[in-house]
Design goal:
Layout lengths: L3 E3 L2 H24 L4 H21 L2 E4 L3 E5 L3 E6 L5 E4 L2 E6 L2 E9 L2 H15 L4 H10 L4 H15 L9 E4 L1 H20 L1
Helix pairs in contact: 1-2, 2-6, 3-4
Length: about 190
């Protein structure tokens, strides 16, 4: 089974656009910059790029055969299907597994998205078309986060037997390395300037 990945597509796209912008600026600073101003600009660029990486590109909910993997800003979590006790949505998807609570960074249900979904449901419920009314009743005022939470709940019920592993939450090596590299750039900029 190919893993399914749920994330904010807008954040992912903007994150990669920033990475292209940052790569072009690194080339420009390397080719045309002069110390110490190029190193200071590079440090600022490095800090922003590290933040974009950990906040826009990393976060995802990955559905695998044996469980769900959650990549948040600085931490990774894995919950096997047999370990999923409850999945709920507040402003974020929350997965309960024994004493462990995993809040998913993405997808989130914002207040604005909830209002828009409720408006769509109310408009469709007033429709003369029977099919649109039935769809409005089925979907209701659900957001993308609600839909993902329902998918996770359904999969945890149907895949309990194919579950593997144990619930674990760990620091993300790539996120920690990105933040550490940004800190090194800042320190180097202060030392040189």
């Amino acid at each position: 089974m190919k893993p399914q990945v749920y994330r904010s597509k807008a954040a992912w796209l903007l994150g990669w656009l920033w990475m292209l912008f940052a790569a072009w600026n690194v080339w420009d600073l390397t080719a045309h910059g002069h110390l110490p101003s190029a190193l200071i600009a590079g440090a600022v660029l490095g800090v922003i790029t590290a933040l974009v990486f950990v906040m826009a590109l990393r976060p995802a909910v990955i559905v695998e055969e044996g469980g769900v993997r959650v990549r948040n800003v600085l931490r990774n979590a894995y919950v096997p299907w047999s370990g999923v006790d409850d999945v709920s949505v507040t402003n974020a998807i929350v997965i309960e597994s024994g004493d462990t609570t995993v809040r998913c960074w993405t997808p989130q249900a914002t207040a604005r998205e909830r209002v828009r979904a409720a408006g769509r449901a109310a408009k469709a419920a007033k429709s003369a078309n029977k099919a649109e009314r039935a769809a409005a009743e089925a979907v209701g005022a659900r957001t993308h986060a609600d839909w993902v939470a329902d998918q996770l709940t359904e999969m945890s019920r149907s895949r309990r037997e194919s579950s593997s592993g144990e619930t674990r939450v760990t620091w993300s090596p790539s996120a920690v390395a990105a933040i550490a590299a940004a800190i090194v750039l800042v320190v180097a900029a202060f030392v040189v300037s």
